[in-house]
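Q: Got a minute? One more chain.
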Amino acid sequence: MKVSCDVIQDLLPLYTDQAASADTVALVEEHLASCPACREELGRLGTALPAEPEGVEPLRRFKRRWRRRQVLIAVTAAVVTAAVAGGIFLTCFWGRRVAAGDVEVSLELQWSGLTSGEDSGGDGSRGELEQGNWSGVIHVCSSHEKNLRSRIEPFSETDENGVIVRAGYVIDMWEVPDRAPSGSGSITAGYGYPNEAGPIPEDFDIVFIVRYRDGEVTYSVREMGLLDPAG
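A: Always. Here it is, folded:
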């Protein structure tokens, strides 16, 4: 039964004079434990607060730790749920990264432009170059007739003299679920070396770095024996 502060404060003189019964003492002390106003009134009467029963403070510390643990568990569960839901969303609508064994990759060197007074014919032959550029081209096709989506970023590397020695693209690829709104069965990317930049340096290489689910593979046009424009 909840007792009002007025009743407790009427009983405080009996409590301070130690003239109250054991039941009244218990009732007053129970109220004082949770009522700052009545404790303040007791202090004005010049009586010290009753000592807390032995073991109360450890119990309070346990309750505080238990509440903190419950909050931590709730937050952890929310984070895990969000991560799982986000993973499902990305897998269903964005796709998962392609494995190297799930695609077929080929490289070629293309010349777009004219040689002196004649059409190059697209056969890769070269006379005296008038205008145009050489392009290293990568073709990536799915081996399982899956749609692919890519993110392509250019990159270049220079030597100690600031001369570009390697350039091309870094390519990330994902398999796209059939219900996804975009994607295609193959991806093609070409990096060009403009003729107006002058002769292709002897050590220059066009490379494509493809990031697969199971690792990263670098495809080099020069290592494939294709980058020989003088031929």
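A: The chain is about 30% helix and 35% strand.
Q: Perfect, thanks.
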